Amino acid sequence: MADGILLGPGEGEALRNEKGNRLAVVKAALEHLSVFEFTIEGPFEGPDPHTHDSETDSFYVLEGEVDFFLEGEWTRHGPGTFFSAPPGVEHAFAKHEPGMARLLNIHAPGGFEKELRDISV
After folding, report:
1. Is 0.85 surpassed by the pTM of this model?
2. What are the structural domains, with CATH classification, of the chain?
3. Within 10 A of 22 (CB to CB), how many other CB atoms are there?
4. pLDDT of residue 70
C-alpha cells in the first residue's frame, strides 16, 4: 500500500526544461496518479499535438492564460479552466504569449513522471 502525500507550496521534485521557461514540480508520483504543478514563463511551445494510449491527461489553470489544443483547434483559457483528454484524444498545451502561467497537470494512471524526468535537465 502506498504512503499518503502531503506537500506544501514549493515542495516536491523540481524538473526544469533546457530553456528554463518550464518548471514542473512533481506533487504525486503514484501508480494510479501523477500530479505536477507547472510554472511557465511564456512563450512556451509545449509538446506537439499527441495522444496517449492508456492515460487521461488533465489540466487545471491556476494563474495566467494557457493555450490548449483540442479537436484540431487552439484556444486560450484562464484561471479556473479545466481541460481533460482521455486516451486516444489528440491534445496539447502551450503558452503563445509572454507572461507567467501556473497550472496543475494530472495523469491517470500514473507513470508520466518518468517521461518528464527524461525531457528535463
Report:
1. yes
2. 23-118 (2.60.120.10)
3. 21
4. 96
Write out the H or E segment, with its range, that includes residue 102. strand 91-108
* Residue for grid cell 489544443: 69
Cα–Cα dist 111/119, whole Å: 14
The answer to whether the CB of 63 falls within 8 A of the CB of 102 is yes
Three cell numbers, residue 41: 514563463
Q: Strands (DSSP E) along 8-55, which ranges?
A: 13-16, 22-29, 34-44
Whole-number Å distance between alpha carbons of 37 and 104 = 5
Question: Positive or negative CA dihedral for 33, 36, 37, 41?
Answer: negative
Mean pLDDT per 10-residue run, the chain (121 residues)? 86 95 96 97 94 96 98 96 97 96 97 92 88
